[in-house]
Design a protein that fits this description.
A five-stranded mixed β-sheet has the order 3-2-1-4-5. The chain contains five helices and five strands, in the order βββαααβαβα. It has 120 residues and is an alpha/beta fold. It is globular.
């Protein structure tokens, strides 16, 4: 089975109503990279200085980046029929689901959390 390793940076307003500022998705099967998608994302909200300090991403960097709606189809395709893997998967998955809910799309994938995996 394929899996997608996902990392998301956000504008930093918790899990609900948080907006993505950067996304990286790598689709893999065993140790082979099948596809990769990386993009800054215009969150359409101001990025707080605190978040810029953590991520290095500021308002100027995302001003001309695509909005989520413009990259949503690519995200659906690259993650389709794959296990969604992230470090603290609850955060990344919930933020991504929220972005899709804004578009009226129900995003559902099987999940694997590398934090929980490390504990085991």
């Amino acid at each position: 089975m394929d899996y997608v390793v996902v990392d998301i940076e956000t504008a930093g307003k918790g899990i609900k109503n948080n907006r993505i500022t950067e996304i990286c998705i790598v689709r893999m099967n065993e140790d082979k990279i099948l596809d990769k998608f990386v993009s800054l994302v215009n969150p359409q909200v101001r990025i707080p200085n605190f978040i810029t300090g953590l991520t290095g991403i500021d308002d100027d960097m995302v001003r001309t980046a695509p909005v989520f709606e413009e990259i949503a189809e690519k995200i659906v395709k690259i993650t389709e029929d794959a296990v969604f893997v992230a470090h603290n998967v609850t955060f990344d998955y919930s933020v991504l689901r929220s972005e899709f809910q804004h578009l009226g799309y129900n995003f559902n994938r099987k999940k694997l959390c590398t934090v929980r995996l490390a504990w085991k």
